[in-house]
Structures are given as C-alpha cells and as structure tokens.
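Case study: Response regulator receiver domain-containing protein.
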Amino acid sequence: MNVALPTLLLVEDDPNDVMLFRRAMDKSKMANPLQLAKDGEEAVAYLSGEGLYADRNTYPLPAIMLLDLKLPRKSGLEVLEWLRDQPGINRLPVVVMTSSKESTDVGRAYDLGANSYLVKPVSFETLLEMVKVLGLYWFILNEKPDISLRTME
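Here is what the predicted structure looks like once written out:
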C-alpha cells in the first residue's frame, strides 16, 4: 500500500528564504511534499480550500505549517488568529519561523496558538540542521491531530 507523505505548507514571501528552505529539504533528504503560500491571504485561501486551492488532491491539507510573521496582505499573526478560529483545522500544528526575536512577537504568537517559535538561522548549515530536526520531530515523532474540513459547515 502506497501511503502519501504528509504535506508541509511554507508561508514565506522572501524568494531567497524559500529557495534556501527547499535546498535544505533536499540536502536533508526530507521527501515530504512542500506547498508554498507567498502571503497571508494566500495561506488562508490554501487552508480554506478556496479558488485555486479547492482541489485537495493537488493542494492537500498540510500536516504542519511553517509561518513567517512579516507577510504582505495579512500578517502571520493574523493568519494564526484566523486559523485557530476554524473548526476542523484549528489544531493544525504551526511553527512560526521568522527573523523576529522580539519578545512581543514571541509572546503574541504563543498567545494565538503557535506550537513552536523559531528564529530563522543566519547560516545555511544551521538551517539544514533545523530542517532535519523539524522533519524528525513533526513528521516522525509527533502525534498529529486529526485535521479535516468536515466540521467547517
């Protein structure tokens, strides 16, 4: 039986950060599918299954979302606040991965239900180690909640 690997949703507007993250995934041999949302509104549309994202075979619900805070159109904190109010998907694990070390950002992210808060590393080697640990913890060791849109009616 062929079991599909869980999807990772990366919400990131910086193309350089996206490229480095993809490279780190490749080097760490993380085979999970990666979906990308370039801003907060696109992340909400993806998670809602709206418009382009209505086809859940092409755009499956992610098992985890990596969320930048500083995003155009809707901030990462706004996305997180929206997500936690959505029945069925409100338990989606969210790892904030951002450049901000501000204690107000850290505190607000946790207040809104972030499961983890990581500061983007400066070096590629550190990013590579972070991606390896993320893959091990969130996709292998962690027990995932049941996430579906079935209760969103």
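For the exam, be able to explain this: The radius of gyration is 15 Å.
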